[in-house]
Amino acid sequence: MAVSLKPLDDRVVVSPLDAEEMTAGGIVLPDSAKEKPQRGKVVAVGPGKLLESGERCPVALVVGDEVLFGKYGGTEIEVDGEEIKILRESDILAKIV
Amino acid sequence: MAVSLKPLDDRVVVSPLDAEEMTAGGIVLPDSAKEKPQRGKVVAVGPGKLLESGERCPVALVVGDEVLFGKYGGTEIEVDGEEIKILRESDILAKIV
Amino acid sequence: MAVSLKPLDDRVVVSPLDAEEMTAGGIVLPDSAKEKPQRGKVVAVGPGKLLESGERCPVALVVGDEVLFGKYGGTEIEVDGEEIKILRESDILAKIV
Amino acid sequence: MAVSLKPLDDRVVVSPLDAEEMTAGGIVLPDSAKEKPQRGKVVAVGPGKLLESGERCPVALVVGDEVLFGKYGGTEIEVDGEEIKILRESDILAKIV
Amino acid sequence: MAVSLKPLDDRVVVSPLDAEEMTAGGIVLPDSAKEKPQRGKVVAVGPGKLLESGERCPVALVVGDEVLFGKYGGTEIEVDGEEIKILRESDILAKIV
Amino acid sequence: MAVSLKPLDDRVVVSPLDAEEMTAGGIVLPDSAKEKPQRGKVVAVGPGKLLESGERCPVALVVGDEVLFGKYGGTEIEVDGEEIKILRESDILAKIV
Amino acid sequence: MAVSLKPLDDRVVVSPLDAEEMTAGGIVLPDSAKEKPQRGKVVAVGPGKLLESGERCPVALVVGDEVLFGKYGGTEIEVDGEEIKILRESDILAKIV
Asked: Which parts pass through the membrane (chains A, B, C, D, E, F, G) (predicted)?
C-alpha cells in the first residue's frame, strides 16, 4: 500500500480473502449459518486495549496472520483500490494455523 | 483437520455431536425447553479472558472435553467438510464427566 | 446419574422438586406472584465466579442443599430421564434450612 | 417459620406489614405516587454483596429491622401460610427508626 | 417526624419546598424546561455509596441543606402527613447556598 | 446571583451565551449539524467525579471558562431571572481559549 | 483559527478533508460500505481518558496527524467559517502514515 494505516487501540486492519481462496483452504461457510465469518490476512495491528493501569495489552496477532472474523463487524474502506476492513481484536474469532 | 483454528481470547472451538449420540449418553433435551443445549467435543481453546491486570485467566477446558452449550450462541463454520462452532467460554454451560 | 455434569464458572445444577413436595415443606407459591420461584436440590456446583484478581469466589452452596430459584432462569435439560436445570449462582434466591 | 430461608448474596427476606399497620405508624402512601413503597420487617439477611477483592460487604440491616421497599421489586413467596418477599439490599429504600 | 427514616446506601430523604417558596428564593423553573427540577430540604442522609474497597464514600450533603433535584427521580412517600422523597445522591443536581 | 448553586459530583453550572455572541466569536453552528452545541460561561463547578479509591478527580474547568456543550444535555433552570444549565463534565465538549 | 478549542477528556478536534483529497491519497470509500469513514487532520487533542487511578491516559495522536473516523460519530461545529468535528479518541479508527 502506498498509503498505510496505523490502527488505534486494539484495532486490526485486515485484507479479506475471497470465497474461492477460503474453499481452497478447506473452510466452507454453510448457507444456514447465522453469521458467516470471513477469512482475511492481517495487514496492521494497533497498540492494544487500554487497561485501567494505564498500560496496554498487546494484540495477540501479528502482520501476516490469517484470521476468521464476523462479516458484519468493523468498517470497510478502500485503500489503493484494495478493499480492507478495520476491526477490533474482539471481533476476530480465531487465527488459522 | 488439515486447517486448524487457534481461537482468540476466551473462545473455544467445539465439534457438535448429533442428537443420536446425545441420547445414547443418557442426555435427552425436552421439547418444552426454552433453549435446547447441544453436546459437543472441544477441539481448540484460546488463551483465556483478559483480566485488568493484563494477565489472562486460562480457559477451564482442555481439548477432548465433552461439553454442553447453548444452541444459539457462537458462530458456525465448516472446516474440511465438518461443521464446527466457535463459542466464548461463558457460553459453555457444563463439562460432561 | 450415569452421566454427570461439572458446571463451569458460577453455575449450579439443580434437580427441581415438584409442587407437592413444596407444599409439604410449608412453602406455597401464590398464584398472584409475578414470578413463581421453584424449589430444588443442588446436584453439582461450579468453581465460582471469576474475580478480576484471577481467583474465583467459591459458590456459597454445596451438593444436597435445597434452594429456591426463579422459574424462568437457567437452561433445562434431561439427563437419564430426569429433568434438571443449569443456573448461575445469582439466579438462586435462597437456601432452605 | 417451620421452614426458614437463608438468602444468598445481598438478598433480604422481608415480611410485609399491611396498609393499616403502615398508617398507624404515621406513614401514608399517596395515591399519586409513581411507585408506592411497602413497609415490612426483615426476617433474614444474606452474607452481603461480593466485592472484587473476594470479600463481602455485610448487609446494613439486621433481623427485626423495619424497612421501606419498592412494591414491584423482588420475588413473592408464601411460607407456612405467610406471604414474604425476597429482595436485594439495593431494593430497600430506608430503615424506619 | 414521629417516625424517622434512615436511608440505605447513598440515598437522601428530602422534604420538597413548594413553588411559591422557590420563586421567593430567586429560582424560577421555565415552562420550556425539559425536566423541571424541584427544590427541597435534606432531612436524612444514608451512609454513602459502597466502593469496591468495601468502604463507603460519605454523602456530600448534611441534614438541613437545600438542594435541587429532578422532579421524576426517586420515590414519594407520606410520613406523618408530610410528603417526602427518597432519592439517590446522584439524583441531586446541586446544593443551594 | 443572589442565590448561588454548588453542584454535586462532576456537575458544572453554565450560563449559556446567545447565538449573536457566538457568531461574534467566530463560531457558527451549521443548520445541518446533527446536534448543535451551545456556548456558555462556567459559573460553578462541583468537586469532581468519584473514583473507586474514594478520591475525586477535580473538574478540568474553572469559573469563568467559556465552553461548548451539547444543546440537549443537562437540566435547565432559571435563577434570579437568568436561565442556566446544570451539566455533567462529560457533557462539556471543549473549552474555548 | 482566531478562536481555538481545547477539548476535554479524550476528545479530539478534527478538520475533515473533502472527498477529492481522499481519493488523491489512494483511499476510496466504497458506496456499499455500511459506514463510510472520513479522513481529517487533527487540530487539537484533549488530556486523555481518566483512569480509575485518577491519572489520564494520553491521547495517542498529536496535532497534524491524519486520521480516519466514522462519519456519524462526534459533533459538527463551524469555527471561523471552517467546519470541524469534535470526536472521542475511541471514534478514531486509524492514523494514516
From this structure: none
